[in-house]
Design a protein that fits this description.
Strand content: 15-25%
Distance between the termini: 66 Å
Shape: globular
Radius of gyration: 50 Å
Helix content: 25-40%
Number of helices: 50
Strand order of the largest sheet: 2-1-3-7-8
Number of strands: 86
Amino acid sequence: MAAPIDESVLNALRGVTSAHTRLPKPLLIKIYVASLKQEFNQERRMLLELVGPELQSLYDDRQIELEFVDMHFGTGDLEINQLERDPYMIDDYLHEIDTCHAHTKSVFFMVLVGDGIGRQLLPTKMDEDIFSAILADHQTTADHEASLVKWYEKDESQAKRQLKQDYRLMAVDAWLAESQPMQRFLEGVLQSLVQGASAAGRSADFVERVQQLRRTQIEREVSQAMALTSEKILAVFRERAAQSSKRDVEAGERLRKIKDELTMNLSTDNHTTLVVPGSAASEAIDPDNEDHESYLSKFKNKVTDKLRLLIEAHITNDPDVIKGRKKTVQEIFHEHATHLRILREHTDSAALVESRVPQQLRQNLMANFRNGSRHAPYFLCGADGSGKSAILSHLYGQVGTWFGSTRVHRVIRFAKATPRSAYNLELLRVICQQISIIFNIPEGYLPKDASFDPLYINTWFQNLLRRIEDMGNDVLFLFIDDLHLLNPLDCDIVTALSWLPTSLPWNVQIICSSTTPVEQLKFTPMQRDRFKSTEYQFDLNLGDYATRLKIPPQCIPGDVSFALYVEQQFDQLERHYGRQAVGDLASYITCSEYGLSETELLELLMPTDDPESLIETRSGHFSFATFKKIHREMDILLLLHDKIMSGKVLIQWRHNYCSAVAKRRYLDVQRTRSLHCELANLFFPQDEDESTLENESNRSDTKSVISMKERDREKDSLSAVSAVSAVSAGRKSSSTHHNDDTSTFYNPIAADVSYSMRHVEESWHHLMRSDDTTRFKQIAVCNFDFLLAAVQTVSISYLRCLIEHVRCYILDRDIELIYYTIRKSSDVLTRDPMQLGSQLISWLRPISEHDDDDNSLLSMTVRSATAWCDGYAVPLLVPLTGWLPAPLPSQIRTMTVSGTGCIRAVWLAPSKQHLILATSSGDVQQWHIMSNSLEHIFKGHTAAVTCLVVAPQSESELLLTGSEDASVLVWHVALRERRAHINNAHTAPITGVAAGVNNTLIISSSEDATIAITDLASGKLRHRITHHRGPVSGILVAGACDVLISGSLDRTICVWNLENFGLLNTMQMTSPVLRIDISWNSVFLLALCEDNALYVRTLATGKELHSLKGHKSKIRTISIGKDSQRCVVGCDDTRALIYDMHAGKLVRSLPPNPGPVTAVHAMDNDDFLVTVGGNKITFYSFRNEELYVNPYSRHPRRKRSLKRHAQAQRSPSTTLPPITCFDLSRDSQQMAIASGRNVHLMRINTPEFQCTLEGHSAGVSCLKFAPNGEFLATGSEDRLVLIWNLALGEIRHSFKGHTAPVVKVVVLMDSLRVISTDRDSLLLVWMAHSGNLLQTIQGPYKYLAVTNNMRFAASTNGDNTLKIWSLTQEDEKYSVSHSDEITCFEISADSAHIISGSRDMSLKVWQATGGKLSQVLVGHSDAVTCVAVSVTNKTQVLSGSKDMNLILWDLLTGEEVHTLAGHLGAVIGVKVSADGSTAVSGSDDKTLIVWETKRGLALTSLQMHVPFTHFDISLEVSRVLVQLVDSYNLPVICLHNTPAQYVKLPTYSGPSKDVEDLRPQGPKRQMKRLLKKEVSLDTYTWQKKYGHLTSSVMMAQVDERLKRRFSVSASMEEISKIAETKTGASQANLGPEQAALAQSQHFDQLEALWNKRSPPRRRHNAGLSRQTSLVEDRLESSDDDEYQDERAGMLSASYDNIHLLARLPGLRSLHDAWKTNSLRVRSPRSRSARTKFYVSTPPPQNSQDSSSHDLQQSPGHCSSYGGRMVVAPDLVRDLLASPIPAAAAESPQRISLKQLLHWPSLKSRIWRRQRNCHSLQPNIRLNPPERILRPTPIIVVENYDVRRVQQLRTDLILHPQTSRASVGHIEVAGSEQLLAKKSNYWQRRWQLLRHKANRSESSHPLRDSGNSHSNNSNADRTANCNDCVAQ
């Protein structure tokens, strides 16, 4: 865990609190302004209009609200103080100062001191002796005495006189007429009592008490503030440049004392003095006066600076302002603190007097505790006012003493007191997190796999209880008050309270209270059965557990019930303040969900037209002074209480019963709706004109009590009241402020709204209940900024509960989509709330693409989310394409109705939230859909209702119903009143009703075969149609053209003109027509006939289009969807069927119902389909989302043809072939996608479709871009590899070399060669432009990769071996292995290493050259699944495993750098950016996570919601491409703000386009010319140094021209000069091998100068560039092949001296020894001889030799067989047919050398088919089958490389008993026919690897020494075949 939690916070969370426990204060700076009303009128206006808004703007980013409190606001005339009207209000003023001090974060009191101190207040209380002294004073007259006695009465103590409050019943003017003279009289008398002659005999105490009465308002306010603190007071002294001579001396002295007190006790930062220029004659400040204007400007600046400095000093280190690192702890602590404050109120009230419940509960509880037995929760049940909360509060304080030394932890929640305690899901989540903090759960209070899903949280809670059970010294108490108030939502599991355990551990106690009895709470049957025991229930309504509570002193008489007491207090308040004012205040508080702040209430209750007008409560309004008075009074009366929640001080009812009383007294349905509209407009101002906004400043002084944040909004259309708390930062917007993890949210729809915590918690309730669904969706629940604010400020579980709450009231498709998106994303948003935008885009983008309207709400939501993601400041994954299906389930909601009988018709009410049902009883019922409640019954019919319809124009809200009573009724739905009754138009039951011509005509059809057309306004019959000859079964009106369609049992359908009622068309049917319907676009007509057939016809012509088939029972009802394409029919078999009328096919069968489907209805826009079966009404998602958008089309909105629609609806994912593979171009600009037989090219930045490549006849299995981006190679199941020209989109070449389906294709870095593999384990290397085959490899084929330097290819089949092949040397191959299957491998960017991962949980690092193991990486605990390397960081390796972790390794040391943990499933892939700074990993948990490799931190993630198999990234990780499982979509995901840098990849080029130059070499040979400085290789030097290795036979055959060639003396200086002239600087900084090659090439130039001829031909692109990797390995000189025969015989080695060859370094095989013409001998001291020869003597030819001699002889000695000496054979002599020794002349047969060679890897069929040798090693033994003698190996040559693992290279098999040896031919004595046959075979089949067709005989001096049976052509072929023979 991180830093420890503060101990005081932890104790508070544990329930260990005291009076000194510091709980969070509100984020509020509330400043009480004290001043004289008239003197500082302009200064107070300046504070409210300018200072407040300016300071508010400074603290918006810290979410601190600034508020100035001006008690003089709205108190009328400046000459009359409010305290003169109501003297008792001084107590409210002083109480407000205390409140400001208690709640404010900084300055709470500001005093403006000027020239005076004001008038003395009328005393509200005075001691009896003072009252007597006043009466006895000589100034007191009889009138004065009578007035005093009239208004002052003795209090209850009889020791004081108090002012009567009867003045409140008088008119204000009448009261002022009496009070002002009395106030002036008392002022003079009291002054004389302390200053006159009568004061001499007074006691000091008496004088002091009189002085207290004489204090003015400002003196009392300053004294009250100074008594609290002096640190948070600001004093402003105003002086005048010219002093007035008219001044009261005593008043001046008292003013001086006030100034002195403030100056002495305040620091210099807390007071300031301003001077008003001008003469003293100008008493009042006049803004039009230039001097006064200058003063006001200085006042504004000075006060602003002072306040800013003081506020900054106070909030800098405030823990409530500073966002702590532990956001979870802070959130839970603030939530817990709200409930602790409510608990403290109950505790301080000490309401509980007597109850048996605590004692009885303790006995039961302690018995279970001591026995260690499990038990159920305890329940306290009782009516309102029965003392439930008082008992809970009492128990909370007592349980800590019940258990002795055992630690007791207490958690309390008051249900619905806060948003987090209003829903079961949120309540349980917060409790679980608090328990985790209390018990220090190691998961960091939120498990790694946490999900705020109901099922998960329920399980989490149960697991926590089990963990507590194991803690023996801890007891947990959980108190939940008012359990019944928890909102039941659909997300609750089974039932709302099913999470409450039925069996608790012995040390866990849950105590709940509820007004609703336990039997009626939403428990499961098992819970209800368990909880009904009397041991766990305490019914406070019964006598045994009846509770006696303390009666408030205001209760008269004292024994009334709680309900009566509340009623009495409301009556009293109405008498004091008026019914309208009390009713408005009570109504607003009642309509609020969690309470309203003072500023919010005052904005609603206080008029602001005239700042100097008198606001009276009798008119229903409040000023701040009167509001504070009623607020304080209702608090004392125990009606209201202040609640601190989310940084706000909210006013709320203390008891829920008060809300019920207010509803009954002041609210009805219409009033409630209008109040919710007002409250919604309070948070979201609506339709404010710009001019009005500009003029707000002119009247802003009228809102002195409104917070500056509110005023700022009014002036500048900025945000609402409150500030947001803990909202994520990251908006790159100048209009937003972000600090730490806070931000305000900008709403593009409601541009004047910045979403705050108050919006998230409170405002949406009022929008929802204001019945403006469109506005509610736009501003709140479907607005991205609102959703983001909810997730960031509270949690995803709260947002889910919020939308669930909305779904209890509103049925709307957009809301359903948002809800299911949030629901499906709950898991990922729990762990990463910042994915909200990405998740909304992922789910809703495909749906918004279906919307024809780009300005639809969902389209705007997606655009808003995209804009927010674009502006986000840190890395964030954002989808650019859609891939997810619509999140809606098929069945949305189910209603169960009762008492309706058979429902014949159903229609949606104009409100869209109600269904209107036609019942068999004759009543028309209106049901609310989401609450499943009956709201209204339209009564009027006397028989069963047969049909109904709501008029098309929704604003008319007309409902038409027809019945079997032959009458038609017209209703107004909203007003629920009847508009018309048509009962004389028909004589038989009504069969259909309709409205036409703008709802002015009522049309009805009947079984009497007539159609009546009635005028709605007059109710008179306009026309009667009697055309039909049978009952009319139904009528419809085509609203677009006012055409009437009627169907009848006379087998006709008629079309009528409603203008003249003329017949337009008649359609003759084959059977009586039972029902008809027309499409929304008036094109199609659907008719149900008596033969149970459905006919689709055109409405205009009547032509029959289809006869719909597929139903198996009788059809009861039909309806056509609003898309005019699908129709729904209800059948007797309880099923509803959906048909496609365009295709004439059955599309879908809906689930069965309890009874026959009797009515169906498609809602507007096909949002939902309503089916009625029995008493069950089901709502299905009906929008045609299955119409997919082809992602590979230039018209992305073009939907597929209607003929394929039926297939798409059942399985839309099968309409396109799934993607099999994809590839990203090397520059990360383009991608190719293989889907079926086609390849689609797309730009990934846009992403934009380019073209489709069609050419394969089977599915494409692999594809690869050329590194240069010019072409694309695709392999297919059709065994072809196609090369596509990307510029033209055409096939450049088709490679047909494979005989099996192609599996893998790779294009080498030179973009010249392609490697492709097939299922026959064949790897072919071929030229991309021509298809010429270069190399054939037999090996693994499933996984293939090639090094960037094009030297090696690695492949595996997923077994435990990995094959490494050389692409430049045929004999170079390695096989590396793991102990288990290899799952992945990767080649480093420098081509030096191959990193393989395996199921053995390890990674191994192999050197590409030699296959040597250089490092083993061990650290995973399960199989390694993926590995990745970067381009620039060569030491960094990142691997993923099934252990769900990734590990970053150091390649050099093998150490773990970081372990990246974050996935919840096996890691299936990882990619690293080119610069190595960023990695992306994918997992089986369907998530992508972006990591920062330097710190090992997760930057962002994205939940894909569907499994994927593979993904790839661009170079800088700006794009991520994901291949899904069995999907035709390939998501393109953008990583905004990617931390990776773009790295330009190095380019690679091939040495030549010559096919021959790109073929791999045979076995590597030593370099031909390694010249040393000043060394001359002439003939003499050669013979001296190497003569002992050269036989005389060989030297005799050396050509003279060859001797001259080696007589050239070349120094390094001469070679370097040629290098400068020929190659310049291109060969600088070459390696040793390249330098040697350069020397060899420059030697050719010297020889050309010597011979006076042109230099030999050079290969194309033979420059020694670093990027030409093939040149580095090819050590052959650039000579013409005419010298190859000369080089073949330069050195001869006999068996006697063959062991000396081991001293030659770098010799790879004996073949090199035969053909090397320039050798550099390493010093004998060298420890690493690369080549070793082992010589063994073959066994003798007879048993006699075998018995007398050893099998092995040392080299260099003659062997003795049977007593005769055997001459040691000469190797070169045997090979080149030198003279036969006499000892061997009697050999019975002649065997060539090839007969003795073993070629292990060449296939016969390839050998026969190909004319050239392409294999690395042959794979068959070319021994004659007729041979008698089996050759025995005597020489084994092994190649050793000190840098690689020792590995056998060449097995050379020779036999010493050959009579003649010839190269390339086989001759056996006595078998001439066989010999000829073999000779012809080799003539036909043997081809040279590097054959030159035209050679002169003089160039081959060795040809004459060949076999006599060989001709010249044959000799040419065999002379150069050593490349194959030597293998």
